[in-house]
Write a structure and sequence with these properties.
The chain is an alpha/beta fold and about 180 residues long. It has two domains: about 35 residues; about 130 residues, Glutaredoxin (3-Layer(aba) Sandwich), CATH 3.40.30.10. Strands 1-4-3-2-5-6 form a six-stranded mixed sheet. Helix 5 links the parallel strand 3 and strand 4. It starts with a helix and ends with a helix.
Length: about 180
């Protein structure tokens, strides 16, 4: 009788452990799938903040326009054509646009990559995959609340951060201050 009860307890505990293990495995598979969505599989760079930071601090003759955006952000999507136009014009004006996507890893293949292709985005696009926003947001700008769209414009002589949506005219006006 004692053996039967002991056997039953072991069986129940083993079943619970297996059930819990399945849950952990499915949670981990989402993480692993995000990890597998690397630059090789996406076709665009995926950076943590330490890898992105050099793009925010170059010291050459160009003016850099770094726009933080996401496919789920309507104001971001509305202003993207203006950044694309600036990028096209920028080649003659020694300007470079870099679009930093803040999309979640689960959206990279299903939303971000199709969006870039469908909209024929020509600007450089990189993905920032760093969940420690409280650490890296103030490194971009100490006054940034974390809201998007947000844009950093800088060159060797000047640096300015904008937590706002741009029109083409206002973006061009701001860029004229960097000549």
């Amino acid at each position: 009788m004692i053996r039967s009860v002991l056997f039953l307890c072991i069986l129940v505990l083993t079943g619970c452990a297996l059930k819990e293990g399945k849950k952990t495995t499915s949670e981990n598979s989402a993480f692993v799938n995000a990890e597998l969505a690397s630059e090789d599989s996406l076709g665009i760079p995926v950076y943590n903040f330490d890898e992105l930071e050099p793009l925010l601090n170059r010291n050459d003759d160009k003016t850099y326009i770094i726009n933080f955006w996401a496919t789920w952000c309507a104001p971001c999507i509305k202003e993207l054509p203006y950044f694309e136009k600036i990028n096209q014009e920028g080649k003659a004006n020694n300007r470079k646009v870099i679009l930093v996507s803040l999309d979640m890893p689960s959206m990279w293949k299903s939303k971000l990559i199709p969006f870039i292709r469908n909209k024929d985005i020509k600007s450089e696009v990189v993905v920032l995959d760093d969940p420690d926003q409280n650490s890296w947001i103030p490194k971009v700008n100490k006054n940034w609340s974390g809201a998007i769209p947000a844009t950093l414009i800088y060159n060797r002589n000047k640096r300015k951060f904008y937590e706002q949506t741009f029109t083409y005219e206002t973006l061009n006006k701001e860029l004229s201050e960097f000549n």
